[in-house]
Prior knowledge:
single chain, 1381 residues, alpha+beta, Rossmann fold, 6-stranded parallel beta sheet, 5-stranded parallel beta sheet, 39 helices, globular, repeat
Amino acid sequence: MPESFPQETGPSRKRRKIQSPDVFISHAGPDKLHIARPLSEKLQAHGLNCFLDRMSMEPGDYEQDEMTKAMESAKVGVFILSPEFAARKWTMRELRCFLRRRIEAIGSGMRPPTLIPVFYRLSIPECGELDPDRYWDDAGNNIFEVEKFFSEERQREASTDTVKGELHELAEFNGIENEVGATNLPGDRFGHGKRAHLVEQVFLWVKKKCEEDSSDEVREVLNASGQVGTQAAVTSTARCAVDKFTPCIHAEHNPDEIYLQLNSRGIDGSPNTCEARLKEAVLSTDRNTSIGATATGKGGVGKTCALRAIAHDDDIKARFSGGVYFMSLGKDANVGRLIEQLCIAVEASGGNQAAAKMQEQSELSRVLTKMRAWFNTRVCLFIIDDVWAVNGIDACILQKLSTLAAATGDIRERSRLLYSTRDSELKQVGKRVTFEPREREGRDSVHMLMLASGANPEEANDPRCKEAVSKILKLCAGLPLALNVAGTGVRYMRDRWEGEKSQAWETYLSKMKSRNTIRSESPGDGYLLSLDATLHASLEIVESGMGSDAERLGQFSFRKIHRSLCVMKKQDRMPLSLVRDLWEMDYESAEKYAIQMERVGLVDLHYDKDCGWIRMHDLTHDFAVQEAQKEESVTVWYKKLADVCRQGRGLLGMTESEGRESKDAREKYVFENIYRVLKQGGYVEELKNLFLSARWVKAVIQRGSVRQYEEAVKDLNSFLRNTGGSESLLRDTREEDSVYAMELMMRAARLSVPFCGESSAGIYFQLHGRIKHRASELCSVRGILDEIEEHAPRPWLRPVSECVGRAGGSLVQHIVLRTTAHEVGMDSTGGVYGLYSNSRRTRITVFAQSPDKEMKMTKLDNDFGTGSRELTCGCVSMSKRYAVIGYGDGTLQFWSVSEKKMLWSVCGHESRVRSVAMSGDGKRAVSGSDDESVRVWDVDTGLQIGDALTGHTDWVNSVAMSGDGKRAVSGSRDKSVRVWDVDTGLQIGDALPGHTLAVRRVAMSGDGKRAVSGSWDMSVRVWEVDTGLQISEVFGHTHWVRSVGMSGDGKRAVSGSEDESVRVWDVDTGLQIGDALTGHTGGVRTGGVYSVAMSGDGKRAVSGSLDKGVRVWDVDTGLRIGDALTGHTSVVSHVAMSGDGKRAVSGSWDKSVRVWDVDTGLQIGEAFGHTHWVQSVGMSDDGKRAVSGSWDMSVRVWDVDTGLQIGDALTGHTGRVRSVAMSGDGKRAVSGSLDKSVRVWDVDTGLQIGDALTGHAGCVTSVAMSGDGKRAVSGSLDKSVRVWDVEKGITVHLGKLEDWQDIVERFLNAEDLGAVSRTGHRRKRRKVFESGGKIVHEREDGSEAVLTQLESTVTWWEVDDNHGVFVAAAGNRVAIMKLVV
């Protein structure tokens, strides 16, 4: 890869008559005056050639030509983002041009243009999740509708999804962010000073980029990825610019005395040693073994040494140019250890930031996805030593890890994996090479022994020691580890031998015989006892100078200190600084004795970062455990280690170390191992108290150890429940309180990680806010809150209201996808599955999550949307083995998900495929198309079953299939429903007529005997499939029926409609069961029910709506089970339910899938509050009350001390509430709305004072109120300001919006703004403020400290410095916080 890029060239540069611009400023018209023009003038004054639409043209220039030339040649593109930018075609064309140029330039090795997004009036989250319904102009019209964004012409040029995808790509670039809430209005809180500061920031960054000879950011990307095929590859790496891939051999060298023959060949030329065969398997180009190889065999037979030797072999290094990465697990390892080792491999290759992001993941599949993205197409060898299917690592782990080697192209250019394992239960991959003990007195055994002993090879045949050597070989039983320990022991003796060195062999043999229990005729089954004999001999050797009675007399003993190491984990290491305390000696002595034990093969001593570490072979560790059990028991040593860990500052003292990792190796080891040590030592009560300590959990989050903490809490709770007996006994012993509190803290920690970084104040805020709702019930929670109050750093924000989501609620899991799911489903076990595509619908990913939260993402590698082909629909079988994809050109593709390969691609239809469905086992699929036909397919063969099922006379909108795949049902725009016998290909009966408008959705019972249909005619109809008769026709909905579902037995049906209701029907009687299930809100456009589903027994139903809520219903009573399941931030497009109705899953346009626990019938979540975005907040002068206004058209008043809502919601507005304020005494509130009205409220009674104050011709965006509540001021998008006499309900003054500040101060009789209800239009800087989504405190020295970050974007905030109160509008929450100093 060249060090620098040649400048981009092309026809556009050659044709340019004038100088090509350095900078192209892309902006929408409303942003020109305040941002674009000042930036252009500043850049031009600095000597940079800047293009800003017509201002940069000369007379006679043709606008379209000059614009095209400028954006095709500019070095830097600045994009000032706003709703108008997203809605207008020219600005999006400009962005599209720069994205295309960037891809083309990188693909050809040229220097690409630099893209700098300025998030001015469109934030990063809004770019990623663009919602066109949110944005309105001065006249109250939707900006996107005004710009004809939804017109057929515009959508044909770039669909809504395409625009969202392009904005999402731009948001991936590091840009310049401003505070949320900026407008172009003179009186907005953003202010002239902040705009000037924003322009200065952009100017400095553009200036820097223009002065650089080459783009450092892109060079880092190209160096890190080897090759870049898509813009997504660039943007995904751009944020890790400091990470630079550096291939390396990340593996230890074997000691010099290890004997291996990697290149040994027999007479026939084939490898004749285990290690040589293993090397050949790794280098093999046989496609059947292309994954790599697995070394199997018992412990101590040389697998690990062979793996290390292969890592450093010249042939291996030449083949794997991307490096070799050695990882070690062991029998004590769990998924956390595996993830840690994978992260270390990424760090070793230069990916420090990439590894940090991997550490934040709790799912192995996500870690592997990120790791594969980091190594990309580089050819690497990944070596994983000693893999076991234990502690949460399942038997298919090797297949999962093998995704690291999955690639296309020449087989010689693929990464490989090399494993070793002793676990016979493990499902192996690649070529298997079995390692066995060597021939007892064979050539290899002799070489191993002689090399380890340092003796001359001829010494083995010396008559003076030949017999002793022969007997040692026999006693070692050909075990390489035993041979190495024996040889090392002989070397130690020879180095100290004063007489004939050959006599050392005889002396060692005598020591070995004294402990050996193997009979000479014993077969190889006793080979581990041979190792025991060599280890005993080694201890005899080093202890020979101490006296045989040393330990009995309480003196120093090598045997004692060696067995103390039984507390170590297998394949782990312990710092010498901790070992010295365990051995009760100073560091120098501990190091001296460790060196002596290393000299005889008992331990391995190595140094890393100026710290000494001890480790042992797994079998040597087993020996230490056995010896400890014979003497004082392992528990005694765990108790002693626990005492050692408490020394110094104590366990909680370690929580004072800020940051992800303590510099002290001893402390780091204690932190990572203390759970195991305390439990094994019997200190369960102390461990429980540790888990219930806020300071400890804070340290857990700071060190990135939440995953290990979760595992330990689950393990302890399981132990307490199993040993504590019944639930009643748990209650009697008060353990129940502790168990629940630990689980609550565990969930709080998991939910807090994305929002708190490493700031102690932010972490304490998150933990406090997520558990305080249980304080009245659990005394343990009260203790945790008290601890937070005492130890939180000052200043910190204490959450008063529901500022963040509660831990322990109905939300079981939040699955974040790259884009919106096409389908979600739930199997009988509660597992979740579905599929989604990327924003451009060119790639498909199938996701499946087991009930125990193991997530599997399977990418189906194919260009799904290429050329004119458009991906239109898809589904996954419940078995999760197969998927079927439909396209706009009539093509169908059948995929094997497990094999990640396309089975068949067929041109099955003549036009768009609108709907696909599959049988329960995934063997059959059905498709419906605009060609008016239904077709059934055999997934295994890709062949159509029978002829096309014809009869419909218009588009087929929806299809469904019975569980056994024998029947299918279809609904069409021709108003009919048809049922088909799949085996015969015949229609069952006539078309089922009755609907008077198009059929929108169909569903079928599990046994295929009944079908249900929903139509735009507002009716639901149920059909008897065998007879073709309509069982019932039910009316009740007052708008379109969007979705229908049916119980497994076909006795009940459920429907969801645009009228915001869910209705359940008794199929046999045709009657509605109970009243309509209402609760979804928002009106026809924003509250319609989008999707419904039903449990297998028909007793529960679930619905998802345009109001972003999920609701679960008890069908028999007609009552909603619990409160709305909130959390989605966009339309809930898919819902499904487990067969027993205990869990529900929802998929949303917010690109997430959420799993809900509805078994209890009670949601532990927000019981009150706004149901839509909170747009504005205000406070009373005394800081005791707050008011909020929301898109749900309501106003709510809050008690600042308790965080509770005062009275009911204040309703009356018919449009979104945009602004609110409060009188000084908190007794009155004023609100302005999209409905162009101003309303004043009596807070104590909850009643509106007088009629609505009308007169504005546009949305009311700003309001303020006098201290006594008798006057109000309002500002509108009609650019006017009105002053109101509240008592009389009349306008007393009409002014201009630019005079807002003067009018407020003059008419509200305020000497300063402190006496006026604050509305965000402030002049002075506050000590606590919101910046970039974080709540920040300004210290006395002018520096800033982040206090916390909320889950949702803060759109409005108010602060009362006098009373230390901070109120913010964040999502649908009103976050009330108090500053504690």
